[in-house]
Amino acid sequence: DSGVTQTPKHLITATGQRVTLRCSPRSGDLSVYWYQQSLDQGLQFLIHYYNGEERAKGNILERFSAQQFPDLHSELNLSSLELGDSALYFCASSVAPGGVYEQYFGPGTRLTVT
Amino acid sequence: ILNVEQSPQSLHVQEGDSTNFTCSFPSSNFYALHWYRWETAKSPEALFVMTLNGDEKKKGRISATLNTKEGYSYLYIKGSQPEDSATYLCAFGSSNTGKLIFGQGTTLQVKP
């Protein structure tokens, strides 16, 4: 158990809908990262927040947005969902920003868009 | 576009065999190289973070080396066991953002 929690574990929804994925980092970690794992793709970096502020954006669609709250939990909002958004979404946390810090991954949320 | 390549894509070995895989990454602007182990139905688990050329890290039967000048890292597993069966991912770490760029992984299957 990494100490990172994600809810829900599974989500099935229809095209055009909007969903929110939630992540709570390990105790003491200030950085939260979101990654997407699609069927034929490796883990793709989406976005990074550090202590409530956005630090880096990766291949994140405009239909997707995220935020980190004062209690450090983070939410990833996906709107106008398309079939291609079906994927496993991971949240990870680290104690600080920067590539030298280990990232601890949550169990993931599997999103299925029908 | 920064690319991280891993080879082989998959590997089948017998219990007791030693094995190794390769991760290749751009040698310019190197900051950190991560190795993760990802078992089926679980989440990726950090094995090593390596930052210095010539770094060698070890955890039990698993070890890794790093060559930043030529842009590669090797992961070695000595005396593979069935519980080592997993996908092993390497990731290139960015300096101040923490963004990780992952390779596609090497999937190891160890047969008893």
Describe this protein with a few key phrases.
heterodimer; A: 114 residues; mainly beta; seven-stranded mixed sheet; four-stranded antiparallel sheet; 11 strands; 51% strand; globular; B: mainly beta; six-stranded mixed sheet; five-stranded antiparallel sheet; 0% helix
Would you kindly provide a written description of the structure presented here, covering whatever features stand out?
The complex is a heterodimer of chains A (114) and B (112). Chain A contains no helices and 11 strands. Chain A has strands spanning 5-7, 10-13, 19-24, 31-37, 43-50, 53-57, 64-68, 74-78, 87-94, 104-105, 109-113. In chain A, the strands form 2 sheets. In chain A, strands 2, 4, 5, 6, 9, 10 and 11 form a 7-stranded mixed β-sheet that branches. In chain A, strands 1-3-8-7 form a 4-stranded antiparallel β-sheet, with no helix packed on it. The model of chain A has no long low-confidence stretch (mean pLDDT 94). By secondary structure, chain B is mainly β. In chain B, the strands form 2 sheets. In chain B, strands 2, 4, 5, 9, 10 and 11 form a 6-stranded mixed β-sheet that branches. A 5-stranded antiparallel β-sheet of chain B has the order 1-3-8-7-6, with no helix packed on it. Chain B is globular. The mean pLDDT of chain B is 93. Chains A and B meet through strand 4, strand 5 and strand 10 of A and strand 5, strand 9 and strand 10 of B.
